[in-house]
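ok here's Putative proline/betaine transporter:
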Amino acid sequence: MSSPEQARRARLASMVGTTIEWYDYFLYGTASALIFAPQFFPDLSPTAGKLAAFSTLAIGFAARPLGGVVMGHFGDRIGRKSMLVFSLLVMGGSTVAIGLLPNYQAWGVWAPLALVLCRVLQGISAGGEWGGAALMAVEHAPPHRRGLFGSYAQVGTPLGMVLSTVVFLVVRLAVDEQQFTAWGWRIPFLLSILLVLLGLYIRLRVVESPVFAEVRAQDRRARMPLAQVLRRQPTALLIAVGTFVGNNTLGYIFMVYLVSYSVDEAGLGQQVVLVNLALGSVVWLALTPVFGAMSDRIGRRNVYLIGTALSVLWAFPLFWLIDTGSALLVLVAQAVYVIGVSATYAPQAALFTELFSPEWRYSGASLSYSLGAVLGGGFAPIVCTALYSAFGTTAAISGYIVLVNLISLAAIAAIPAHLGKPQPSARPVRT
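and the structure:
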C-alpha cells in the first residue's frame, strides 16, 4: 500500500488515462455505427456496409489478446507504468491517423485496409492498457478499499464514452449533414492528440506500483509470466474471462448496436440518439464507484449477481421501450440497462487483481480482459445485426443477451465468496 498522496495520484492517472484510451476507442464504435459504411464501403448495400463497418470494429477485439500478451509480459517484467505510457501513445497515434485517412473514393481499396490497420493498433493498445490501469489503481489501495479504488479505472470507460459522444454530437450540431459526412466526422479523431498530451503529463508523474516494486526488489519476477498463468492459475483465468464475456457483450450492444438500431429501426434522429447515449453513459459513470464500494462490503460475487440478474430481466423490456420510438422511453430503457452493465463492470479491476499472483498479475489480468472482450463485445454488434436481419424481431437479440449472461453466471458462481469482504488481517487476499 502506498502513501495517500500517491494513491490519489494513481487513481487519477488510472481514471484519466483510461478515459482518453476509451474516448479514442469509442469514437471508432460510434463512427462505425453512423459514418464508416458510406465512407469506406460505399459499394455495398446498407446492411452489408453496416456489417463490414462492424467487422472492422471486431478486428480491433481480435488484436486485443496480442496486446494483452505482449504488454502483460513487459508489465510483469519491467513495470506497470512504462506500459501505460506506451499504450497511450499507440492508441493516440492510431486514432489521429483515422482522422486523416482518405476515404474509399480517394484511395480505393487501400482506404478500408488502412482503416483496419489503425483498428488493429487500437486493439493492441486496448489489450494492454486496461490491465496496467487496473493494477496501478488497486495495487496502491488499502486492502479494504480495493473495489472502490479499482472502480476509478473502470470509470474511464463510461467517461470516455460520454466525452466521445459529446464531442461527436457537438460537431454534428455545428455543421450540416453534408459537411459532417465530408469532413466533420474527422474532427473528434484529430482532437485526440490534445487528450494524449494531457494523459502523458498525468501518467508520468505517478510512481510505480508498490506491489511490483516489492516483487522487483525481492527478485521474484517470472521469466515467462504468461506461462505461469496458464500453468498455475488456469481456473482463475477461466473465471476472469467468463465474468467479462457477459458484461462486455452488454456494453458493446449499448455503445454500438443500440446507436445503429435506434436510428435505422426505431426512427430516432442521430442527435437524439447521441444525447441518449451520453445520458445513459452518465448513469453508468455515476453508479460505477457505488458498485465498486459495494463490492468491498458484500463481496465481488454478490455485486456481479445483482448486475447479471437485472440484465437478464431487462433483456426483453429494453427493446419493447426502444421500439416505441419515444426518445424519453428509449432513455429510460438504456438507463436501466446500464445499471446491470455498471454492476458487472465496477468490481472487475479488484477481482482480476485478487485472482492472480503479483508475479504474473499483469499478464493474467490483460489476457483475461482481452479474451473476454473477443468472445463478448467484439462480435456483439455483428451478431445482433445478423439476428435481426435473419429473424426480423428483437426477441432474438434479447435471447442472445440472456444467453451470454447465463454463460457468465457459471463463472460468477465460481468466484470465491470471500473476495471483496473485509479481511480481519487487513492483508491482501490470496486465491
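+1. The CA atoms of residues 80 and 132 lie 5 Å apart.
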